[in-house]
Amino acid sequence: MSLSLQSGGSSSRVSASSFSATGTGIVAAANAAGNQVTTRPITTGTSVLGIKYRNGVMLAADTLVSYGSLAKYKNARRLLPVNSRTLIGASGEYSDLQSISDLLIANALEDRCTADSLYEEDNTNEECAKEVWSYLRAVMYQRRNKMNPLWNDVIVAGFQQNPDGSTSDTPFLGTVDKIGTAYEDDMLATGFGGYIALPLMREKYRPDMEEGEARALLEDCLRILFYRDCRALNRVQIAKVTKEGGVLVSEPYELDTFWDYKGYVSTKAGMGTDGGW
Amino acid sequence: MFRNMYDTDVTVWSPEGRLLQVEYAMESVKQGSACIALRSSTHSVLGALKRSVSELSSHQQKILEIDDHLGIGIAGLTADARTLAKWMRNECLNHKYVYGTSMPTGRLATDLADRHQRTTQTYVRRPYGVGLLLASFDKNGPHVFETCPSGNVYECYATAIGARSQSGRTYLEKHYESFPTCSKDDLIMHALRALVGCVAGDGELTKENGSVAVVGKDEKFTLIEGDELQPYLDRLELEGGNNNGGGGGEEEKDDDDEEEDEAKEEDAMET
C-alpha cells in the first residue's frame, strides 16, 4: 500500500498541514489561569461517514491515525461502541477521542450500576443515542467555552427512544463538532468527507436502503476518500446499529483499489500541462 | 420529650448505636400532616392533607411540582422541603439541558437521599426535618419513592407518611394488589380513601384541606385541588366514605399498630 502517491494533499486540514510544515510547532498555549490548552491537534484521524438505512444506522471510517502528514498508526479504531445500542465515531485528535470514549463508557457503567428501579428486571437505565449525543454537545460546548476544546468532530449513531423507554424503530444519527454545534441528519460526514463523500451520499441516499446498499455506498465513499484525501487509508471499519442486534463493529479490512487509470500510470511530463492533476 | 446526653450533636453516637438527632428529625416527619402516594401501571398519584394555621389563613401547600413528569408530597418542615424542591427542580432542568430528556426518578431519589445523608454525618449540620414522597412517570414507567431524614430511600407500590399515616398505609397494603390495573380516576379514589383515614378526630376531608396530584403516560403532572377535587369527594360521599369515624373507614378497624398521636399540637412549622 502506497501512501504518498500524490503530492500536495488536502488544503482543508489547515492545522495539521501547518503543524507538519513547522515541525515541532507550539501545540499548546496558556490560558488566563496559566494552564496549557490545546490549540491544534497532534495525532489525527480523518473522515467519519454515517448513514441511516432501512432498519439501522451505519458508520464507516478508516483506521489511520496521522502524526501531521506522517501515517503514524495504521490500525487505530475510530468507531467505538459506548453502550449496547449506541455507537460513536470521530475524526480529529485521537487522544481526545479516547478520552471521550472513556468518559462515555464510565457513564454507561454508572448507569448500569445505579439501577433506577428495584422492581423492573429489564429496566433500561442505559442512555439512548440521543442522550449520548446531547450529553456530548454539552461537554464539547463547555470545553470550547473554557478555550480548551476536545478536538474532534463526533458522529453518534443509534436509535431513538420511545417515551416509555423502549427502543423505537426510528434510527438516530447526529453529529457534534469541536465547538459544540450539534445537528441530526439522514447522512453525515466529518472532516474531508464533508466535502468529498457527503455530496455523493446525498445523491445516492434513499430512506429505504437495504443494509447491503448502505454498506456499498459507504465503501465507495471511503475508497474515493482514500484516492483524494492524503490523510486517508484503504484499511477501514464499518459499524452498524440495528434494533435487534445492537451495536456491531467490523474488524478492520482493506478496500480494493484501482490505480490503473491512465492519468495515474503515465507521467505528467510532456503532457502539455503544468504537471499537476 | 426525653433528654439524653448523646443527643446534643447529630454526629454523636449513643451507646446503643443510635443517632438521636436523626431520630428526632424522623419524628418531625411523623408530626407533619399525612401524605400518600401510589401507582398503577400507567399513573402515579400523590395525595395530601393540608393544614392551615388558623381559620383566617390559607392552607399550606403540600404537593409541589418538580418537573412535567415528577412531583413531591411532603411531611415535616415545609421550609426544608422548599429548599429541597428548589434543588430538585434545578437538577431536573440540568438533566434536561445536558441529556435532552427528563430526569430518571431513581437517580433523583438517590441523589436526594444522599443530600439527606450528608447532613447526618457532618458537624454543625442538622438533618432535614422532612420526608418526601416522589411520584413520577418516566421512561421506565410510573414510580413512587419515599425518602426520610435518615437518608434512607425506598421505592414503593404505595406508601404513606406523616401524622396518622398508619391507617392510610393499612388501606394501601390491603388494596395495593389491585392498583396496577386501576384507571386514573380509580387510583385517585384509592388515594382519597387512604387519606380519609388520616384525617384527625372528627375532621372531614374537604376540597379545602385535600390535595391530589396525578402524572401519567403522555400526561403532565397535574395538581387537583379545590373545585376540581369536588367531583372526587362527591363520589367518596356517595360511597359513604368521607367520615373519619365510620363509613368507608372499615379498613381502619384492623389498625393493630396505630400510632399514638393524640397530643399532637399543630406546629405552624410543620405541615
UniProtKB/TrEMBL annotation, chain A:
Cell compartment(s), UniProt: Cytoplasm; Nucleus
UniProt KW Nucleus keyword: yes
Keywords, sorted A to Z: Cytoplasm, Nucleus, Proteasome
Keyword Nucleus set for record: yes
Protein family (similarity comment): Belongs to the peptidase T1B family.
Its job: Non-catalytic component of the proteasome.
Protein's name according to its UniProt entry: Proteasome subunit beta
UniProtKB/TrEMBL annotation, chain B:
Chief location category: cytoplasm
Tree of life domain: Eukaryota
Keywords: Cytoplasm, Nucleus, Proteasome
InterPro entries assigned: Ntn_hydrolases_N (IPR029055), Proteasome_alpha (IPR050115), Proteasome_alpha-type (IPR023332), Proteasome_alpha1 (IPR035144), Proteasome_asu_N (IPR000426), Proteasome_sua/b (IPR001353)
Record's subcellular location: Cytoplasm; Nucleus
Residue segments, region Disordered: 233-271
PROSITE patterns the record matches: PROTEASOME_ALPHA_1, PROTEASOME_ALPHA_2
Keyword Cytoplasm among record annotations: yes
Family matches, as Pfam families: Proteasome, Proteasome_A_N
Iron keyword on record: no
Biased composition (Acidic residues): 249-271
Proteasome alpha-type subunits domain span: 6-28
Annotated GO CC locations: cytoplasm; nucleus; proteasome core complex, alpha-subunit complex
Oligomeric and partner information: The 26S proteasome consists of a 20S proteasome core and two 19S regulatory subunits.
Alphabetized PANTHER family for the sequence: PROTEASOME SUBUNIT ALPHA/BETA
Homology family: Belongs to the peptidase T1A family.
Official protein name in the record: Proteasome subunit alpha type
